[in-house]
Amino acid sequence: MSNDFLADESGSQNTVELSLYEVRRKIYPRSVSGVFAKWRVILIFATQILFYGLPWLQWNDRQAVLFDLVSRKFYIFGLVLWPQDIIYLTLLLILSALALFLFTAVAGRLFCGYACPQTVYTEIFMWIERKVEGDRFARIRLDGEEWPWNFRKWRLKLTKHALWILIALWTGFTFVGYFTPIQVLSAELIAFTLGPWQAFWLIFYSFATWGNAGFMREQVCKYMCPYARFQSVMVDKDTFVVTYDKTRGDPRGSRAKAANHKELGLGDCVDCSICVQVCPTGIDIRDGLQYMCIGCGACIDACDQVMDKVGYDKGLIRYTSERAMLEQMDNKKARHYIFRPRVLVYIGIMSVLLIAFASSVFLRNPLRVDVMRDRGALAREVEGTMIENVYRLQIMNSSESPMKVNIVATGLPGMHILSSQGKEISELIVNPSSNLLIPVKVRVAIDDVKTGTHPISFDIEATESGPNASSTLRVRDEKSSFIVPR
Question: Which of 98, 255, 360, 434 has its CA 20 to 30 A from that of 111?
């Protein structure tokens, strides 16, 4: 608490206490139907079918999407990514950020209102709450002090939380299933043999889902989400956002349906406050665009229903731009301003990055080779006539077919490449989605080279084999050096 001391005209001081923290007032959103409500339901089903179903898809006898942190490999359908492929993750993150900027510049917080996990799970939990406890006024009465904790109240509350926890546990289980093969995870869960980290993340993510969607709800959007804070710099006068038409709606006031509100000096807003009652964050959109607004459009659906009942035109609250509101444009004319320079820049950069990403993935060579010198034995004389350098070759096969690999060293006359046992290296087999570490010795006759450091190259040729493999020859030329001591 902070105290401000204010002196009145007589010189006396009054103490005014100002709270620095707003105590949360629980919000009871009212159910609503309409165009935007239908779109929210469609996107909730789409995102959850994708989230819950993707781990169960199989691809080449393995999980189609699996982020195997233990093996340090990411499987995304036919693509196998290694730590060396961090550039792809970087490109995806940049594309995601640009897409967020683009969608916000065009139509505000579309992601927040329709696809954000916090919004999606809050909607699911509220749907369960309405089915178990009833709509808005029934829930308010149930939570009120006048309703004692009798058998019915306990039954409703326990049923609601039991359903919430089941969904939260299934969500946590699915989340962990993206990092541990979900079929293995299922067997371990049934047998109660989960590892400590698997159990921790399953409980943690389940608890986070239950707490965020069941209790915190709009608090996450208001106080925890950074997007709510910086969206104001991404929105301009041509961005389509949920907007209340003050010119048409004010002055507000209730009136009889048969009354001529123009003669009464009233606007179209009947001041029913239903737009506030349906808002999941509890704001009044009539006060203007606020950072708490997630752009879900619930207030638009509610207001359109009220306008229908009183016989007024729809669109008192609608998706439109500030320019359209000030200049009294219709949405068709306002859409002409969507493709402004800022939006075109976003589209241009995203197009270039998408083309680069797709080309890189399509032309990607699944054969990777790393050459590392053995620092314990940089160079040594063997058999009195040869100079030997020792290397370690790490050959990585990121395809899902075995590879037959041949290794040749070039760069100096008469070079021989041998295994660590001193034998000629024959054709090697590198298993699918795996790597092979090979110690090799490279020898050159002393009389054929001068002292110093000489550039050499390891030429690796690989051919994919197996029923699903192509006959494409994969080639890698890795540079290194050969040291001849004095």
Answer: 360
DSSP labels, 211-273:
HIIIIITHHIIIII-THHHHGGGT--TTS-EEEE-HHHHPSP----TTS-TTTTT--S-----
Partners of residue 396 on adjacent β-strands: 368, 435
d(CA 393, CA 407): 10
Domain boundary among 232, 248, 279: 232
Task: Report the distance separating Cα 15 and Cα 6, nearest Å.
Answer: 7
Q: Is the residue at 17 inside a domain? A: no
Contact yes or no for 267/310 (Cβ under 8 A):
no
| Residues counted in the chain | 486
Q: How far is residue 361's CA from residue 158's CA, in Å, rounded to a whole number?
A: 50
pLDDT in tens, 217-266: 988 988 888 887 777 788 889 999 999 999 999 899 998 888 888 888 99
Beta bridge partners of 251: none
Domain holding 259, by residue range, is: 234-342
Residue from 411, 396, 359, 358 nearest 476 by CA: 396
| Distance in angstroms (rounded) separating the CA atoms of residues 439 and 420 | 6
Backbone angles phi, psi at 438, to 5 degrees: -120, 120
Structure tokens at 130: 């309405």
Contact 389, 412 (CB under 8 A): no
Q: Is residue 361 in some structural domain?
A: no
455 and 394 fall within a common domain: yes
Q: What is the pTM of this model?
A: 0.82
Using CA atoms, how far apart are residues 187 and 168, in angstroms rounded to an integer? Answer: 19
- 28: enclosing H helix or E strand: none
Is 477 in a helix, a strand, or coil? strand
- Contact in structure between 203 and 266 (CB atoms under 8 Å): no
